[in-house]
Amino acid sequence: MQNVLITGGAGFIGSNFVRYLLKAEPRVQVINLDALTYAGSLENLKDLPDAERHTFVKGDITDADFIGDLLRKYSIDTIIHFAAESHVDRSILGPGQFMHTNIIGTYTLLESARKYWLAEKGFDKEQVRFHHISTDEVFGTLAPGEPAWTEESPYAPNSPYAASKASSDHLVRSYGHTYGLPYTLTNCSNNYGPYQFPEKLIPLIIQNAMDEKPLPVYGDGQQVRDWLHVEDHCAAIHLVVGKAANGATYNIGGGNQPANLTIVETICDILDERKPRAGGKSHRELIQFVKDRPGHDRRYAMNAEKLHRELGWSPRYDLNQGLLDTVEWYMSHPEWTAAIRKQLDYQSWMDKNYGKR
Ligand code: NAD
Ligand code: DAU
Which of 223, 230, 277, 332 is most exposed, with minimal Cβ within 10 Å? Predict the structure, then answer.
């Protein structure tokens, strides 16, 4: 790992990973490629450690000529691919962009890597690596009591987002199998932490609660996600890219499985202490049950035993401490929130998704 291309490095997990990698690998050069869609922002890349080893390039992963030139220009030997359309609700209201970015974008990166690494340079499998970041949502949904997903669980994606990510996973495997492109792949559960765009449950609830706005809970709020702090995800990716065998896939999860309503109530309780409302009212009074997400997956749970056994990974964050730290991060970064919310798209998205619920 010398010249690392990170795609989507101005988004939530990508920007956390850029920070993580610059600290963990003192000799790597990081080339950060991001199209700066509504979800990406240079605000996420301020105050990077060792910033002289980070180069930001604005560009689109679906542009084949541009990607080919970029790989050559920076002699890229490792690609860590985060860039995607990532929000399930947006995929329901507008699936086309998800197919283009997540499927065609991944195909374009794979094909560019194949041409440059294998056809032009003739690198062998020890010299290069394509790491694909994917999601637990490719496995569908679990009934109560069903065992957590392993790497052998069958794919059964339910939303357009999940289907587009499943397609991208299959493309990565096919490039490994057919052309011998060296790759690894991780499927991770729901992340939370600093720099998450406030359209996803946890940052949306924190922001709305701080502003004393309604807290929208879909359906009965008893859906279950497997929450993982973003730094634990970054540590897992770093281990896999550095240590895993070519062609290996790993599930990553936090083992934290409270229902959505419990997550929302916990955030309210933290804010009741840290930022009390006038008149002693609880933030819980702001909770509103709203119309459910169509096709809403009921439960996710990941079995991360393989990653623990083979590479020694375990999550470091306890969920309660992680939520407390995250609330405190949002409370202490009002300038970040203000800049992100100024983007034209934010309010129109809120109106579109919540206006008629
Ligand atoms: P995000 O939406 O915060 O960031 C995505 C980034 O990709 C943005 O910076 C955006 O500008 C960039 N991007 C989008 N289209 C692009 C294009 N065509 N070319 C270049 N850049 C483009 O997403 P995230 O939550 O940080 O997720 C990152 C990855 O991790 C995604 O692949 C997602 O599927 C996966 N994932 C996310 C979670 C989660 O809980 N957030 C969990 C598991 C896996
Ligand atoms: O599981 C991994 C996935 O987690 C990632 O692949 C996706 O990129 C990421 O967006 C996330 O998907 P979810 O749909 O699980 O995340 P979201 O934060 O949108 O929703 C979490 C849960 O909260 C889900 O059950 C829907 C519910 N929800 C969400 C919003 C935005 C609400 O009840 N109200 C809301 O306003």
Answer: 332
